[in-house]
Write the structure tokens for this entry.
Amino acid sequence: MSTWNSRGLRGSTLEDLVNRTNEQYREKGLALVQKIPTPITPVRMDKDSRHITLAYFDQRSTVDYIGAVQGIPVCFDAKECSAQTFPLANIHPHQVKFMEDFEKQNGVAFFLIFFSYLNEFYYLTFRELMGFWKRMEEGGRKSFRKEELTEEFYLPKKGGVLVPYLEGIKLDLERR
């Protein structure tokens, strides 16, 4: 069973914040975005509690969230970072490929990066990610530094929204 300090619950606070934000946006009629569950196959269950005690992943998950914002298809993944540098190893090639294909279908793909030590959210456009990704593939840094990020895409706290990612989507669309 996972405990509060286990690796299995990393990012669960971030997930809770994003899920609550999605509820706020849905209630206001601004967006309909849902968490995509990671498919698993149970191997062993505790008969008394009916809890899964051993399982494996059926397939690789693509992104954490998918939905529509005012008729625009969106998909994104939420990542937490507790340092000035974000390792690209936290993003998987199959996620990049899915997001690339999603954008080719006129969707908006992005990452929400939560810099937990600063309590700051960053909207990482797919285009910006690809710059870092290509640099890595060409033998460059396998991470990006906070100071390399575009200042305008830090998400301001406003209007009681916990993670105001619609602001990032708006700016992302304006810059296309």
Remarks:
- The longest strand covers residues 72-81.
